[in-house]
Amino acid sequence: MDFEAARQRLIVALDVSSRRDALRLADRLIEVVGCFKIGLQAFTSQGPALVKELTDRGGRVFLDLKMHDIPNTVAAGVEAAAGLGIEFLTIHTLGGPAMLKAARSGADRSGNARLKLLGVTVLTSLDASELASVGLPTDVRVLAPRLAKLAQSAGLDGIVCSPQDLAHLPKQDQGGFLRVTPGVRPAGAASQDQLRAATPEVAIRAGATHLVVGRPILQSHDPKEAAVQIVEAIRHARMEVK
Ligand code: C5P
Q: 229 CA distance to ligand 1 centroid (A)?
């Protein structure tokens, strides 16, 4: 795999509060990363205008809105988001099969053929006691594969899960089904609040197709170089798994 192909697999979480910081980072990173993730904070404060400013620069956008509502509302929300020209959008698999299928229909109706719908499986912030308190199976090794299967059978394009969950997913859904993992830390980097972090190499070897990385790049003294190092790690690890 060459650098160009490897960089398409690196998604940078633009977790900054101001439009100016987001665009400055995007300008520094646009040549070396594949996509920029806009989350609830940036989207709520800056709105679709920030998405447009990024796409106008040639940036690809991952809109991390983790939609979860009744099917009709989600279908309409997905269609509206797809109209912003984004590349990835997240939906909570816990919304159930009807909602996931409605999300698929909304995406198909939108005419944005590049859009990939990703199902969020189990939030890494949910431990066994949190899962029990909402009445869900407490074993992530049971729950994560179940939700991944649900996402796939509803026609989603992939899932978001922790690198650790990848080991519990059935091998047969590898083909074409995306596995996007946050919680990635280069060897030697501070793990911060990511309790179960994995290096880029470990995540790719475990079956991740795309990595979401925020602070190790954003807080580096040289964000571009930090991103290049992660792309190189992806490139090497992909050559091993191919
Ligand atoms: O800075 P860091 O690399 O930890 O950023 C990871 C990004 O992935 C953040 O935007 C965070 O919200 C997101 N994320 C995560 N863990 C999840 C789901 C999303 O870290 N389970």
A: 19
